[in-house]
Structure prediction request, 294 residues.
Amino acid sequence: MNSKNSLYLLFCLAFILGLSACSSGDKKSNADEFKEAEEGLRSTIEDVVYNIPSPTEIPYLIQQTGAEFNQGLLNSRNKVDQYTNRTDKASLNLGVYTADIGYLTSYDKTQEAIEYLNACKTLADYLGVIGTFDIEILKRFEANISNKDSLAKLLDESIKETEKFLKDDTRNKQAALVVAGSFVEGLHISTGLVNTYPKDLLPTDTRNVILTPVIQVILNQKKSVSELLKMLSAIEQTDPVSGMVRDLKELEEAYESLDIEEKIKNNRADMVLSDKNLETISVVVAKMRKSIVE
Prediction:
């Protein structure tokens, strides 16, 4: 596991660790069927968490291209209090803020990242997440957040505990929403950077060449979108889950319509690697992100 995925899991799996330490208290008439469904969803969540590209890795790749940091792509941490009246909103935006932290740390925005961590603590406390954002952990984040290697070591500790607690998770819906919020925010940051790149400074072909690495990252999310759709489809289809499932189906269709694999196979990647091909994807991602943060 590379350090960039490790950094993401530190901010995402740790939340599932804490959620899994809580009890949902739901009563089901058929305990065996419920247990089987829970175990299936747990396995799906674990697969998605370990296989989707990290929202930390995406900003890192973008930063490597020389793209400038864009503060406007972040969800304001000042909005955190408006998410503390619904568990689904709190879970989704806990994921959003983890992706924002990944973006901030990729650009060495240390102080802002710490402030976002405190926003995460507010949401974690509301959700009843145990031990994820206690004072000691926050101190360790503050001491190591500018050192990616040290963060990776912190992650190793979190992963071991997370793997153990995932087996006893009784808060699968909240865990899935954290993952979904983080993934959507990662796509939002990626598409946002492409869409806000100046269009009047360079010829279209030159602009596409510069943006190619970012566009490739976005196009590579096709499988991840399908995995996320599978995960959310396994949850009770009430709002906001049902709306996200509809949007993810639309997003999946947008990826399918590009026929990415076939074009690359036929050496026609140039037909895909254009920001024009991201228009539908960007629209759907923007719609999903808006429904989460507003």
Summary: Residues 172-195 form the longest helix (24 residues).
